[in-house]
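Thread: Newbie trying to understand structure tokens

Hi all, I'm a second-year student working on a class project, and my supervisor (Dr. K.) asked me to get a predicted structure for one chain before our next meeting. I've only ever worked with sequences, so writing a 3D structure as a token string is new to me. If someone could post the tokens and maybe explain what I'm looking at, I'd be very grateful. Here's the chain:
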Amino acid sequence: MLQLVNVGHKALRDYATIATRGLMDEIRRLAEPLEGKRVVHLSATAFGGGVAEINYTLIPLMRDAGLDVEWRIIHGQEEFFNVTKAMHNGLQGAPDALSAEDREIYVRYQELNAGEFEDDADFVIIHDPQPIGMIGCCPSSRAQWIWRCHIDLSTPNPDTLGFILPWLGTYDAAIFHRRQYVPNGATGLAAAYIWPPAIDPLAPKNMALSAEDAAYIVDQFGIDVDRPLLTQVSRFDPWKDPLGVIDAYREVKRSAPDVQLALVGSMAHDDPEGWDFYHRTVAYADGDPDIYILSNLNNVGSVEVNAFQVHSSAVIQKSIREGFGLTVSEALWKARPTVAGRAGGIVDQIADGETGWLVDSPSDCARACLEILEDPVAARRLALRGKEVVRRSFLTPRLLRDWLVLFNRLRGNDTAGAEVRTVAVGA
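---
Reply by user tm_fold:
Sure, no problem. This is what the structure looks like when written as tokens:
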């Protein structure tokens, strides 16, 4: 059997002071006809990245709403994850085509995982490309299958997109962060659903943390808490551009010599490229004692990430491609001045010059950071406006509600008054 992930317990009532009463009432109404329905989430890893972050909150809340929900992890060896990383990069625009051997490896693991899957669900939710082909190995499934895409599909490599389209066209629904990510050519798929992900405001990474506690935690990693700190939290991945962040930091340092930089990431087992890029990042830092490159292997967990974000003068997310960028919502929720790449779903979170800074280059990033350091009071005003945007649109109760609307629609239940955005595929 596929590995079962223990997600613990969460209670919807704990969110009543954060979500509006109308939203909480709507969740209860939408959950009622779904009582006892079985939902299985399938993904490549239980740790590292946005999928895991979301599922550890979403799944227990689905359970508390009355559904029978579990999360399982597919099997894979390095050869498989090398292929799926190439697919991920291709879907985000990398030019290299998949080889015949890549395709054979991918299909073989789809068959292997389907053979280990107990297909007894009402809904099967497939996260990202790694398990998308399993649907083709389950022809007698009674479930309704949903593909949840968490990556930027706005400019995909046609070869990689063409490889997954035959499977995608057989799904009952697909969900994308943005309209621009919906691929043309998914014949058979009646509509795509458009909604962003969300952060859990009560999770250790996002819970309220005092400035004093944050400084105490950050101090344990050698950071000088009396000097300004810039932080980027993300995987070590070329799409996140940590080398560009270092370039920006070096430009800032010429005007603000006391500044420090923390690059805080996590190493996920489904990202074999991660270690290579981690070492490239360390080499690029060139021994600078004011650059701190940290990960879960340095005992950086959720609370520590929270502390780094809270303590930072500015939080950076200088992505070149980004499906959504949950770290942006995390930083804004903490009312931290946030500088981010003008990419993907980031632009749905930040209004440039109103709730944060959108940048297109290391020099842009440096100028924004210097503006924040020179006028922290004005920067804080923008950050507080950003926090309200997150409160309205990017917290978990809204995400749960969207899923309940979709489940009801697929079952043919009445969802009048509870809409989610859809677009016709190919439109």
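A couple of things are worth pointing out once you decode it. The longest strand covers residues 38-43. DSSP finds 13 helices and 14 strands in the chain. Feel free to ask follow-ups in this thread.
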